Amino acid sequence: MSLDENPQEPTVDRDMESHPSPSDGGPEAPSPASAPPSAANPAAKSEAPAPRTAEVRNALSEWAITILLLLFGITFLVQAFVIPTGSMEDTLLIGDHLLVDKLAYAPANGIEGLLLPYQEVERGDIVVFRYPEDVSQTFVKRVVGKPGDRIRFDEQQLYLNGHKVKESFVYHKSGYIDPYRDNFPSLPNVALSEAANTMLSANVVNGELLVPEGHYFVMGDNRDNSSDSRYWGFVPRRHIIGKPLLIYWSYDAPTERWTSGSLLNPRYFGDLVSGFIPKTRWDRAFRLIHGEHVE
Length: 295
Known about the structure:
- With 295 residues, the chain is of the alpha+beta class.
- The chain has one domain: Umud Fragment, subunit A (Ribbon), CATH 2.10.109.
- The protein contains 8 helices and 13 strands.
- Strands 1, 2, 3, 4, 10, 11, 12 and 13 form an 8-stranded antiparallel sheet that branches.
- The N and C termini lie far apart (75 Å).
């Protein structure tokens, strides 16, 4: 039974029925002011607020607002992302969990362009984008060329618009020169996507790759082990989601751990529980992520 319910209505003492009325000279009957509230106003009980119900309603309202703000933030402001492969090593490691700024590259139209920190995509930026071959997948790479740039590689050395470029963030781990990978653009020695074949046939001028309007050429920092624009073509501007802000957690586990579809996959949950402390890379937590200007 609810605390707001009264198990029994108050009753007047039956002896009162035999007492003489004031007109008979007997004692006065109780006045409405001195009578119990429920006897004086039977509706008072139903009109009184129910504090328990109000508390529940307020709590639900606060949770609803919190959830709405969280959904707004995830949809428009930031997004969590995990690095599943080693293509960006050693800048980003497998198991790095990132927060991605989704406002950074949003179109700067109208007054919001003056109030919010929108920016153009620049060479050297690390970007998160929808994979052109399958937009349901999300990739992270570094921008090497923007619209109008001319790109070529000669034995792993980047030449941008005719000038040699120093890339301090690049790692080479294979120990050998691959004819296509490291002397790009050239005759492919592996199967390429249709978009990459089109890129090589339509956008190579005088031995250099010309980046078309509205597109970007991206590569992984681990150049010898990166599936990137060399193999599947340009990234359209509309596919770029944002830029990584920081690493909020880093956990040392192989690629299949992060491509299983869920952090709490039963196959790996025990490993997460037992390995949380020893396998967490504590020195990477809350590390800010910065691009590096490429000229």
